[in-house]
Amino acid sequence: MSTGSTKTRARNGAGVKEGAGRGAKTPGTLSGAPEAGGTNEMDEMTWRLACLFVLLLAALVRLYALELNPLHHDEGVNGFFLIKLINTGGYQYDPANYHGPTLYYFALVSAKLFKLVGAGLSIYAIRIVPVAFGVATIWLILCLRRRLSAEGALMAAALLALSPGAVYMSRYFIHESLFVFLTLAIIVASLRYYESANPIFLMLASLSAALLFATKETAMISAGVMLIALASTTLYVRLRRGAAGRSARQKKRRGRETKPDALGETLARFDGPTGIAISALAALALFVVVYLLFYSSFLTYAQGISDSLKTFEIWAKTGKKDHIHEWYTYLLWLRQEEAPLLALGAAGVTLALLRARNSFAVFAAAWAIGIIAAYSLIPYKTPWLTLNFIVPLAIIGGYAVGLLYRWAADDLAQRLLVLALAAAALFICGYQMIELNFKHYDEERYVYPYAHTVRQFLPLVERLDRFAAIAGTGTQTPINVASPEYWPLPWYLRDYTRVGYGGRIAGADEPLVICSEEQEFELESALGDRYRRVDSYTLRPGVNLVLYARRDLAER
Fold it and tell me: Rounded to an integer, what distance in angstroms lies between the CA atom of residue 488 and that of residue 109?
């Protein structure tokens, strides 16, 4: 069968208590609370209720009619690997065609849980995994409240909750939802580690990084962009604050004040150089162990470890020859499907860079610009990769709305205007999300249904089940799939034990034969009058499958 795939601990002395005051600052590049334009602060109950509403909304739109959209080619292949993992207990990583093993092992947990409650392996059972990670990504954004303001974090979370592409990819059994969750988890855990000096957060960041690299080869791109964004933020903020810093130092010298030992304080918070070294070594060890466990399929496939290192060379070549598009394609796709998010993201980037008062916002802006630029420079482009842009755009877009809302604290009309802007953006996102995910989910005129299985394919599965019932052989019915294009059919026929995927015309005596339209003449010549043509079914745009049934079965 061909499967080609298109820490809370308070420190003694100079420590900073975790979460101490929303305006508290801690040293460092990404330190500092959000800028405030007024004294109003959202009360805790309102915050909790708003967070709950956003999370429930996100879960609802991702879970509703989860089986509506037929499986994509890649979902079918991923489902095949999951079934193999369930049956054999192992996953053999192939660096030439497929991604890392995390998706399958998380789905294995889901499949076992569904089995415990008496439910079988289904589309719902596998797609619940990306749904869970999609909702968890929104929860991580809400964890950025101190960085974005309560209003900014809620807006960012709502933008991601209703983003057409984020919802679509969260209802897709592919690696992207896991990937962006793990990317953001590294950032959030690293921030919490720097704020609290609690090593548990460093371990969480390391665990997230290991799982990220065990999810997709593009982890190298995301890691590189985040490191460059961090370095750029450090340099940019220092340059922008240089004049103020020089003025402060001159004032201190005139007042004979002692310059604080910032580096010493920072080292003390982390138990000095020795403590930092121990924590770093522990984090590195955790990364290596988790990475090796997953790529070796938990010590059952040693070759997966060496293959995981070969993959970067292989995918560097793939990125130059497959799914080639112009450099600006992602911007066009974002404008078409994510216009409110793109516009708010651009506003947020502008405000963050012009003000340079919120280091995290500057970082988020650099992250958004960097990740879009990196993927745009690579000729290989597919719509699901836009999820890597949607998350930082939502964060920096939420920052913009939160900042405008606080600027308008003393003017009711201006505040209402900001709220109206936010509501309009969310309305457009919500409308487009519903249109895409529940009405036009398989239409190629939209960006995200990329070479997608169309709904007209499903009657073929129904017809096969009907013939199997008529024949009285059920899932033991022999089926010959002669078409070279057939994914995700193996998923839908997973309970059938006698299906052959030869991909070519050959002598056949199976009661049911499936070919492509291009093979019809050759098949009819080979089958003669022993078979009857039943019907033609569109698999995806440009690919049509034809079903033939043996005459005695067809006449019954």
Answer: 22
Cα gap 91→302, rounded to integer Å: 11
pLDDT tens for residues 473-525? Answer: 999 999 999 999 999 999 999 999 999 998 888 767 889 999 999 999 888 88
Vertex 173: Cα angle to 153 and 475 (nearest 5) = 150
Q: How far is residue 231 from each of residues 226, 236, 366, measured CA to CA in Å?
A: 9, 9, 10
> In 10 A of CB 526, how many CB atoms?
17
Would you state the pLDDT for residue 243? 52
Q: Cα angle at 236 between 235 and 237, to 5 degrees? A: 95
- Mapped onto helix, strand or coil, the DSSP state of residue 435 is helix
By CB atoms closer than 10 A (0-12, 13-18, 19+), residue 201 is: buried
How would you class 213 by CB atoms within 10 Å of its CB: exposed for 0-12, middle for 13-18, buried for 19 or more? buried
pLDDT band at residue 11 under the 50/70/90 scheme: very low
Q: Are 304 and 92 in contact (CB under 8 A)?
A: yes
- Give the 3-state secondary structure of residue 378: coil
C-alpha separations of 202 from 139, 182, 220, 445, 488 in Å:
19, 14, 19, 44, 40
428-466 residue pLDDT tens? 999 999 999 999 999 999 999 999 999 999 999 999 999
Cross-strand partners of 549: 512, 532
**Residue 324, φ and ψ in degrees, nearest 5:** -80, 130
What is the share, in percent, of the chain residues with pLDDT greater than 70? 87
Structure tokens at 269: 């918070």
What backbone phi and psi angles, to 5 degrees, belong to 15? -70, 160
Distance CA 314, CA 217 (A): 10
Of 287, 82, 99, 290, residue with least CA distance to 177: 99
pLDDT score for 550: 92
Residue whose structure tokens are 């037929």: 70
The alpha-carbon radius of gyration of the chain (Å, integer) is 27
Do the Cβ atoms of 179 and 216 come closer than 8 Å? yes
Token digits for 121?
């392996």
